[in-house]
Amino acid sequence: MNISVNYLVILVTLILAGCADKSPPPPDRSQLSTPLISSPPKKVANSWSAITQHAALNYGVDQKLVDAIIAVESGGNPTVVSRSNAVGLMQIKASTAGREVYRARGRKGQPEARELRDPAKNIDIGTAYINILQRQQLAGIRDPKTLRYATIVSYANGAGALLRTFSRDRSRAIAMINAMTPEEFYQHVQQKHPAAQAPRYLWKVTTAYRTI
Asked: Which of 46, 89, 110, 198 could form a disulfide with 99 if both were Cys (CB 3.0 to 4.6 A apart)?
C-alpha cells in the first residue's frame, strides 16, 4: 500500500512540474532532420556583436534576433555554404533574400558569393532582409513577440508561405494573427506550416534567443 501511495505522489509531482513549464515545446525530432545548434549562442553573439549592433541600429531590428539567427544558421562560421548555396553567417541566398535587399536599395541583380562571404556585408544584408520582412511583408502584426516568431519563420521559409496558412488574403491573415496570443501563433506554426523544417527552425532560433 505504501509503495502505491509513494508511486502516485511521485507521478503527480512529475505531472505538475511538467505543467509548470510554460516554454513552447520542441517539435517531434523524429520528423525533422535539421541539426542542433553547434556553438553556444552567447559565444557566437559575442564574437560578432560589434557588427550586429551596428546593423541592428541601422535597420531598427532587434540585435538579439540577428545574433540568434547567426547562431542557428552558421554557428558563427562565416565560411559556411549550404547545399542550396546559402552563404555565410546568416546563410543568405543571393537569389532570394539577396535579390530582395538589392531591389529595396534600387539595385539590379543580386549579391555575389564573395560579397556574402564578407561577415560585415553578410550581416548587413541579412539584417536588411529582416527589416524588409517586418516593415513590409509582416507589417501590421501588433504583438512584438508574435512578430518575432513570424519573422523567424519567414526568414527561413518566406512570409508568403506563413501568411497562406491563415488566408490567401494578406489583410485577413494579419487580422487572424492579431487575434492570437503569441503562444497560440507558435502552436499554429507547429501544426499548420507546410514546410517540415519550419517548426524546428522556430524552436531553435527561439531557444538561442533566450540564451543570449
From this structure: 110
